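Methods — Computational structure assignment.
A single polypeptide chain was analysed. Its primary sequence is given first, followed by the predicted tertiary structure written as structure tokens.
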Amino acid sequence: MTSADRHDFHPTLLREYDARGIVGDTLTEADAYWLGRTFGSRVRAEGGSKVATGYDGRHSSPAMEEAVSKGLSDAGLHVLRIGLGPTPMLYYAVNELDADGGVQITGSHNPPDYNGFKFMLGTGPFYGDDIRALGTSAAAGDVTSGAGTRENVDVEDDYVERLLNDAPDADFHIGWDCGNGAAGRVLEKLVAKLPGQHELLYTEIDGDFPNHHPDPTEEKNLADLRQLIDDKDLDFGIAFDGDGDRIGAVDGKGRVVWGDQLLMILAEDVLRDEPGSTIIADVKASQALFDHVAQQGGKPLMWKTGHSLVKAKMKEVGSPLAGEMSGHIFFKHRYYGFDDALYAAVRLMRALKRSGMSLTDLRGAMPALINTPELRFEVPEERKFAIIEEVRQRLQDEGADMSEIDGVRVNTEDGWWLLRASNTQNVLVARAEAKSEDALVRLKAMINEQLEASGIDKLPE
């Protein structure tokens, strides 16, 4: 067997729920081809014949899509190439075009020199051992061959119309910040048909992200949106990440409405239509969310962080709505069950209209818990999961009250704290939520104690 018949991926490329790397270093166009070839072979093995592809606005994305689609067609598939757009538009295309799978080329919220791949098998997620098995297949040259075909398919206008299906007739004055990410062109078409008034920031798609990084979970990236709200006296603002599957929000007073707080509002609306249903949130979410779902007659379920993992759990338990602290919001109620920030924005408008209250009033009425944002800090890639295991073992020996769903989430009289390893970056993620400032100090001290015991620097202040 020659080297052309097989391929080895960089050991960090294949992650828990996507493939991601540094372009020209841990990720090359040859990797992209072999991801297409091996994934295409898996689709063929499942009896599939066609796969959709899309890509975000990063400079490397068109070439990566070309390589992936070539790999898919060489595996014998018909490739539906939907072109540049947000990740949820690719998910939409797979559902509406009856494709047997999909590949979105996106670096999401990572720095500009990264890129990656999100996969669908059928209309469901493809993750974990299935992604890692692509590496085994590539290394062994265990792939199918065939004379596949490729065609360009434009779904953008149809996708916009689908988003509009659930838009309310409401005269909101909204600010929108695309951060030069892949949602820009779709958003321009969407707001042109939405009622109300709309102020747009950074809708030009630019892989250099010249204005700010497209990650709405970091408050510094919301500064321009806050200023716009203040300058124009807007009702609220919406921000998107680089590939349009995560939403951020700011109320009329400039306060961030975090992913779990948005889910509180959206859950109440969904539970009006589907009383008693299960609402899923990840381990980073506020206890206030789980309590609120229960108070509204729903069944709160805490689950692992990760868009693929959440989607799989939703299908397993029949949940109509799920969300993550990071801004992934998943609607099965009236929609397809995937994470779509543009659709979540439309549904937020609908929930506000039906509630008769403003986002500012709803945000102000939420419990006054004190919490940290996601605290991230770099650790060696090969150490991140080992550190979590060391912490888990020590806490277990101490008899701590903790959840081990994803990392460790520890409950105390002061509140709770979380420490988990990111699946997409060489970082640990911490968060704490307390009943007072003094209690938060004590919780952060507990995190620092565990980090120091594993030889890691303290949390950033």
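Note: DSSP finds 14 helices and 22 strands in the chain.
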